[in-house]
Amino acid sequence: MPEVDDDARATDEPASPEVKLSRRSALASRVRAWAKWMGGQPLWRIALVGFLVLSAIVMFAATRPTTRPQPPVISTTPSASFNPPPANSDLISPPALSALTQTIVYLEDKYQTSLGVAIAPIAPAGRAFMRPWTGGSLVTGYAWATADLPVALAVLREPKEPNDPEYLLTRAFNDSSAAGDLALWQYLGTDTVAAEKTQAIIVEAGDLNTVVRVNEASAALAPFGQTRWTLSDQAMFMGSFYCMTESDRVLTHMRQPSLDDTYGLGLLPSVRVKSGSGTEPNGVDSLRQIALVEVATGTPYAVAVSAIAIDGSLATAKAALNELAPAIAMITHGMDGYC
What we know:
The chain is an alpha+beta fold. The protein has a single domain, classed as Beta-lactamase. It is extended and about 130 Å long.
């Protein structure tokens, strides 16, 4: 093994406290000697030494790398695999309301009448958060006079209102006059123009499915009465209609239905309702109602109902709705909405 002298071995071993103290003392002696030397030098030499020291510091700093490690970049854009969900995917399911389902089944059997119910929360167009609850064997049908709502609102939105709009609303909503329905419609213009303006109100409420249908008017039916309107779409329309500009003027008249319309939903307290009836292509009569119903908590819900008795009797259909209406008000819950 090669020999290692004592001096080389000493550099590898940690210095003792005595050695460290000796080194500090030597360094201090050198600093004092340098300061004493500088004190005896002329001013120009001291300035020159200071300049040289400062230049050396600057040159040393200039040779250091100026770039620093950059922080990792966090992307805020979605990845290529991200696909935004469809707009209606945010709609939650309504409560089951199984007791109401059972009631509808019972009443359909008891009165031998086909029933349809749709319930939706109050929500402005574009802000719906829940799908309508539906029950019964009927899902769609003719709107009949319930289509007065978008027609009346279109009239109130006209640049020039009728001379006496309240009279027209009273005739159509409080007297249930077919002539009043027709007067509102004709104020909008020709059948084509009136249909376009009525359609615009329905679309504004968020219903992109229903198409206003124009037929020849009769003594008992306005030309727009045979518009096909699903109960679920109409209930959602009612939930949005509640929040629309000028709709309060229509809703005020819906608080006082005519005596002929005081059945079904029209029997409930504090209800705002519009009813309609007509003859189906097979010759039987059907009923349709659209309303804002205050449930047990006092919260208004949008409701659309329809009834067709097997025997074609309006009296039978009304009897079924008379028993159904309080069940809707008492059982419905969990669908509170707002404008």
